Amino acid sequence: MKMLLTGASGFVGSILLPLLCKEYDVTTLGRGMVNDIALDLTVNVPTLPDSFDIVLHAAGKTYVRHRSKNEWQEFYDVNVQGTKNLCRALERSGVPERFVFLSSVAVYGCVEGEDVTEEAPLNGTHPYAQSKIIAERYLSEWCTVHGVALTILRPALIAGPNPVGNLGAMIRGLKRGFYFRVGNGETRKSVVMAQDIVTLVRLTSEKPGIYNVTDGRHPSLAELEDVICRQMGRNGPLSVPLWFARILARCGDMAGSRVPINSLKLEKLTKTLTYSNKKAVELLGWKPVDVLNSFKLFTEC
């Protein structure tokens, strides 16, 4: 089957590409010259050389901590306008049978909770979450109009070599000694190995829909920290009591957003937030990889 993959040079896409090539005839589209079709989707509607059986839209601007004045526009341009331009190109070349969109659990806008399901309201207010919500709704309408089977995957924290986002920040903090464990690190988070996305692309061929993507184990921060530290050959991070962490966070609030700890970062370290993968497991027979047993900091040669 012929697949069009966007975002192949990004963190997730670069992990998916070699795995997808084992199952599909893959054409890549993105900004970098390493792509088969080198083009910026935010400003151009590409001319595609052929029609495709399946499109995996993994390109997008991801969440960043440090906000800029133009943050909303940047997220809209990449995650919304880029998606619209891709669909316009597909209308010209021939619409695919299937469209798989890589969204995010950020669309729910949850700060804490356990086993959040796909039926939860989309209350995300951050520009990243808002752009994903708009893109999801656009694709839902577009696929309905054109008779395309749509699958929306909402991954939690994605693990893989040299990760980005909060997991990448944790690794950098542990490496530099700017990270500490709050209490016993019992706060739990949902995580998923990047390669599991490939498995779900295959499994959703007959049962498209919206699926949360998490390994279901929901490791504690202490478990993640220990896995990372062992691979670095280091002892676990210094543990501090919650009352002391709150004092440090208040100091961080006054110092600015680039400090190792502030109230927002402390909130993430102390509030459990997990998402249910029950729908994918029961409906698709998916058996996700255990992150704690599979996560490697770097690509093995």
Plain-language structure description:
The protein has a 7-stranded parallel sheet, with helices on both faces. It is of the alpha/beta class and 301 residues long. The model has no long low-confidence stretch (mean pLDDT 91). Strand 4 (54-57), helix 2 (71-93) and strand 5 (98-102) form a beta-alpha-beta unit. The protein has 10 helices and 13 strands. Helix 7 (242-255) packs antiparallel against helix 8. It has helices spanning 11-20, 71-93, 127-146, 165-176, 196-203, 221-232, 242-255, 263-270, 278-284, 291-294, and strands at 2-6, 25-30, 37-38, 54-57, 98-102, 113-116, 149-155, 157-159, 180-182, 191-193, 210-213, 238-240, 273-275.
Defining key terms:
single chain, 301 residues, 7-stranded parallel β-sheet, two-stranded parallel ribbon, 10 helices, globular
